[in-house]
Design a protein that fits this description.
Length: 222
């Protein structure tokens, strides 16, 4: 099985639904001014919920946030993972890792259409657990995987023992092709399991997405 992160939760009932559907990770957005932004209190509630069910772990998502804010969130909520979705540089990540100590793991987002070099991944390697490869919202067309060197970067990330996450534009319909083409540690979905009219998570879409991911292989095909 390939684990699933259901991201952008905005309601506790959606978090419960995702857990009951089999989600492995729950994502809470802590980026003010964005449509899915949620308070620290909401993050705390989702963490408590995950502890109650004991089947999913929580990822708090930030973008160029003050390090003190992230550390405070982690201490107050006891969240497991911190995902950096901005242009945080190596110095920032190193400082955050030092400030967090062993309280939480760091995932760093990289643009799948502007991939980092292997040298960049190597530089981040001591300080982050996960490399999240994300398709930006501004790119409206389906990803042409043949035109980007994603496989070589993914291979390098696997060799460095990163948790390799793919996010952006994933749905139950296109996920089989992606999982046949690439080995991934986690697949990350938000809008792909939402009702476009309400913005809330859709039970049918969520179950379908998780079913596809959980029936696919986890180990690399080489």
């Amino acid at each position: 099985m390939v684990p699933v992160k259901c991201c952008g939760l905005t309601r506790i009932q959606d978090a419960i639904m995702c857990i009951e559907a089999g989600a492995d990770f729950l994502g809470v957005i802590r980026v003010e001014g964005t449509p899915r932004f949620q308070s620290l209190d909401f993050l705390e509630q989702v963490v408590l919920l995950s502890e109650k069910y004991e089947t999913a772990r929580v990822v708090a998502v930030y973008q160029n946030a003050p390090i003190d804010m992230i550390v405070n969130d982690v201490i107050q909520s006891d969240v497991d993972f911190v995902q950096l979705h901005g242009d945080e540089d190596l110095a920032y990540v190193k400082a955050l890792d030092e400030a967090l100590g062993n309280r939480a793991f760091i995932w760093k987002v990289f643009n799948v259409l502007d991939l980092p070099s292997i040298e960049t991944l190597e530089a981040f390697n001591p300080y982050i657990l996960g490399a999240v490869f994300d398709a930006p919202k501004s790119h409206k067309e389906p990803i042409d995987w043949e035109s980007i060197p994603f496989q070589s970067i993914l291979d390098a990330a696997v060799d460095m023992n990163f948790v390799c996450v793919l996010a952006g534009k994933l749905t139950a319909e296109n996920l089989p092709e992606v999982l046949t083409r690439f080995w991934l540690s986690v697949v990350d979905v938000a809008s792909g399991i939402e009702n476009p009219e309400t913005g809330f998570k859709d039970k049918k879409k969520t179950k379908a997405f998780i079913k596809v991911a959980h029936t696919r292989r986890l180990h690399p095909p080489y």
